[in-house]
Each structure stands twice: as structure tokens, then as C-alpha cells.
Design brief:
39% of the residues lie in helices and 11% in strands. The protein has 133 residues and is α+β, with helices and mostly antiparallel strands. The chain has one domain. It is globular, with a radius of gyration of 16 Å. The model has no long low-confidence stretch (mean pLDDT 89).
Length: 133
């Protein structure tokens, strides 16, 4: 499994209503990150502050031109305060396959047990910050 190349597929695919935030996350944003809280409406995230409509793309996703090696690079303006849904992605190998994640290598698909073990190692920092359910 390759490291994330910041292709942005996950952020783009799940932006349009595919993400949620917990009540605790929303409360935190309201108290400490009001700029983020502006994009929350009735418990739904990434809503247009003016119209209340669901935004088609995450307002915190930034695209920069890449190099010859990488066409575009995406970054998150609220990376450290992003929702748990974002921190948890990818949840498992099957989700990565379904989403055509660019981190995947042929060996990950051919040997799913090994692929999931690699994913667990790569995601250990993000997953460890998630609350227990």
C-alpha cells in the first residue's frame, strides 16, 4: 500500500452530503471554531451559510497544481479539526477498492488480509484519535 498522494478522491466523493459530524464535534466548532460552525445547519455539515443548501464540495478542500509527477494535490484547511468521518477514512480495504483509492497496490487486492494489515498501520495515527463506539 502506498502512502496517500493527496489525490482528493475521498474528499470529493464524500463531500456532497456523504459526511456527518457528532454533536460533540459540532459543539466544539461552535465554541472554538466558529468559521467551521458557519457551515453546519440543523446537524448537517458543509451547508452553504447563505442559502442553507448542501454544498457540492467540502468548503475546506483546497486544490493546488502539482508537478509532473502529480497533476493536482488536495489539502484540508481544517485537517486537525476535521470530522471523525474524515479521520476514519478509509475504514477498510473494500471501501478503498470501491472508491478506487490511489493508495492501493495490486498486492493489497490480491492479498486482502495483508492489505488490511498495511492499512491499519498507515491509519494508526488517525484512527487512534477517534472516540470509541
Amino acid at each position: 500500500m502506498k502512502p496517500c498522494n493527496q489525490c482528493g478522491k475521498c474528499c470529493i466523493n464524500y463531500s456532497n452530503g456523504g459526511l456527518s459530524a457528532t454533536a460533540d464535534e459540532i459543539e466544539y466548532w461552535e465554541l472554538f471554531r466558529p468559521k467551521i460552525a458557519r457551515y453546519v445547519s440543523n446537524g448537517s455539515i458543509w451547508m452553504d451559510p447563505s442559502s442553507g443548501a448542501q454544498l457540492e464540495i467540502c468548503p475546506w478542500l483546497r486544490r493546488t497544481e502539482g508537478t509532473e509527477k502529480s497533476k493536482e494535490i488536495y489539502s484540508c484547511d481544517i485537517y486537525h479539526d476535521r470530522p471523525n468521518d474524515c479521520k476514519a477514512y478509509p475504514a477498510d480495504l473494500s471501501q478503498m477498492i470501491n472508491d478506487e483509492c490511489e493508495m492501493l497496490e495490486a498486492d493489497d487486492i490480491d492479498n486482502p488480509k495483508h492489505g488490511n494489515a498495511r492499512l491499519k498501520l498507515i491509519m494508526s495515527d488517525s484512527w487512534s484519535s477517534l472516540p470509541y463506539e
